[in-house]
Each structure stands twice: as C-alpha cells, then as structure tokens.
Amino acid sequence: MSDVLHIVGGGMAGSEAAWQAAQMGVDVVIHEMRPEVETFAHKTGNLAEMVCSNSFRSDDSEQNAVGLLHWEMRAAGGIIMAQADAHRLPAGGALAVDRDPFAEAVTAQLMAHPQISVSYGEITELPDQGHWIFATGPLTSSALGRAIQAETGSEALAFFDAIAPIVYFDSIDMSRAWMQSRYDKGDTEEERTAYLNCPMDRDQYEAFIDALLAADKAEFHEGETAGYFDGCLPIEVMAERGRETLRHGPMKPVGLTNPHQPDVKAHAVVQLRRDNALGTLYNIVGFQTKMKYGAQADVFRMIPGLEDARFARLGGIHRNTFLNSPTLLDARMRLKSRPNIRFAGQITGVEGYVESSAMGLLAGRMAAGDILGTNIAPPPPTTAMGALVTHITGGADARTFQPMNVNFGLFPPVEGLKGGRRGRKDRYKAYTDRAKSDWRDWLDATQSEAIA
C-alpha cells in the first residue's frame, strides 16, 4: 500500500496526475465520488468531465501563456492535451473540445492502463499515511471540505463560478446572425468562421442592459459571500459595474463585419462558439450568469437571432472552494502539516481547465518521484508550469490570494527587452522561447532521475 498513489478526484487534474504517475511506473488508485455522490454541475460519471466552457482557450504557444502551457503539457505526454487534440472543434485561434467524446476517451484510456484502477465512493477524511493527491476541484464535497478546514485551521476561501448557457443551433435565426471569427483569425476557412455572431444596435443593447439589471437573480445561502473571480464574472455583475462594461468585454463589436448589413457597424455583438462536433450546440461566449432560469430565457431571447432560441442548458452558479496555497502548501504542492498529502488542480487556487490539468501533471510526477525514491523539484519559474506553481505556493500575497490564470505577468522578466505595448510581441516570443528550452531541460532531468 505504501507504494500506491491515491488520487482523490477524477476531474482534469486528477486524471492528468494519474496518467503521469502511471506512465512513470507507479500503481495508482483514482477515488471518484461520482456517480454515487452527485454534484449539480456534473451530468455523467465520466472522468475529466467538462462542466463549464468547452474551451481550453488560446493555442498560440509563441504569444500566449495559455498556449505555452498547452505546449508544455503536450511535451510531457499529457493525456488531457492528447485527447483535447483528438476531439478538437473549430474555434479560431482557440482550442475548443467536443466535451462528451473527450471525457469518454480520457476515461477509457485511464481505465485501460494496467497500473490505474478506479474506486467509486466519497473520501471524507485526510489520511495520515500513504501517498495522496487531493484534486477534488471547485465542487469539493461538504464532508471533505470540513476535514480540510479542520486540518488547515483556517476558513475555506470561496468564490462563485457561473456557467454559460448552451443553445440549439437550429433554433438560431441565421438571417440575422453570421459566422466569423474576430479579424478572420485562423488558418482555414473553418477556423475563420468558428464563431456565430449576433449584432445589436444601440437601442437593443440599452434594452438588454436594462433587462439584465432588472432580472431575478439566484440568492446566496446564509454565510456565503459573492467574491467572484474576475475571469469568470456573471454578465449581470459586469453590467452592474457600468453600462458600457459588456461592450468592452464579451460583447465587444471589433473585428467583425455583418454580411447582412456590411455598411452598418454593430454597437455590440454577442458571440456563440460551437460546443460539439456535430455543430448542433453553441455556447454563448462569456455569458456566465446567476439569473434564475425563467429570467435567463426571457433576457437571452432579446438578443437578435436568438428570439426563438431553445436552450440545451441554462446557466448556473456554484460555490467554488480553494486553499490559501501560499500559506498551506510547500513548493512541491505538499500540505505543510501533512507532507504525505499533495493538492492539485483548481482547489490550489489556479483557474481554468488547462491550469488545473497542469497542476495535476506536476503533482502526479512529483508524487511518483517520492514513491520511486527520486526527489523531483518543481520546474523553473521561467516555464509556464513553473511560473504558475511558484505563484500559488509562495509567489502570491497570502493576504489577498485569489484564483489565477497563467499569464506572462507571473514570469521572471527577460533582460534587455523593450517594455510597453509596442515591445510586447518580441517580449512574449522571448518568454516562450526561454520557457520551451527550460521545460525540455526539466523534463530531461526528471526523466533521467526516474530511470536512475
């Protein structure tokens, strides 16, 4: 039993951690509470189920930190990126995934691995012995949350994460909407037409904002506070911050030309992105919401082209729990008070599918190293994964710690480069070139140690 790695949670992070450790020759047990214990957001019992967006965001590994993280995970033989690539959907410069076949493929590949088994049932305590990774994500069960809270001696931090609605394509009025990626971005016609656009004039936009502000909203439970992560704000919260906020966010009208009215510049544009390979479902980009279901249908049908929209899923809201990792975790993602336990994924205070998977990759490799008798150090902070894990385990201010996406602001600067907006392209390329070289060196070193 001491040579077995136990992973609690079969989401993105847990799945990636299991794969990495098993590929290094370690026996792994994934403990997954679903389907015995359900959550409001999950619909299946599959591992690596996607419950919010179906996008892994930018796939540009030269100019974008998220794309660089994709590159690093691919270089490390990650299962999440391999299956994302295998189930890719057109999305301009982004990596969007056909969510159900993706999760089914990850599940099948993990369960077919000779060194991985899955145990279904809820883990409610933190174990004193053995090698463990807790990757329970934003929907950590109440019982386990209480155990973590008791161990850390601090109140759990939480914010509310909102889910965007999904629309049936055949209910969209294409005489008003059109297909185009912003600035026609993409190498193929399919990529250049990956987004569905619904235009608004000024009057329609103002009426839409009025309806958002007046709509019935979901109530918070007693003792909960609405501390949102800025990267996933509900649209009505954005509207409350100013009537023009949405026009400069998810509804910005730039880089688009309406073929139905090419001489008319839209005041605002709502974009939808394909959500499955068949093209029958589209999610409304950036439209996370905490409106009640009835209000959602009424408000979203004010969008030109969506007057008769049918919804495969309406938006939702849930409590998202994460650790104050700079205080609680060491540089190798171990709980300082119980070094036999690591945490990985969104519960560590990273935000997004890719970042969660990346932290699973690191935790899986480092835990496997412990079992194999090697001491695997974290990757250097010049890499995307290294920058992110450095931030959450000590780089961030514990007093103001909030969930973080990977971004170039977390990277050590490259000396001698021009600052400001004009020098950004060269600066980002220098960051990614350095990161790729350092990541290859780290992979080579850790693989050599594992073999030795």
Structural account:
- This is Methylenetetrahydrofolate--tRNA-(uracil-5-)-methyltransferase TrmFO.
- Its cofactor is FAD.
- Belongs to the MnmG family. TrmFO subfamily.
- This protein is an alpha+beta fold.
- The protein folds into two domains: 282 residues, FAD/NAD(P)-binding domain (3-Layer(bba) Sandwich); 158 residues, Elongation Factor Tu (Ef-tu), domain 3 (Beta Barrel), CATH 2.40.30.260.
- It contains 13 helices and 17 strands.
- The strands form four sheets. It has a six-stranded mixed sheet with strand order 6-2-1-7-17-16. Strands 10-11-12-13-9-14 form a six-stranded antiparallel sheet. Strands 3-5-4 form a three-stranded antiparallel sheet.
- The chain is globular.
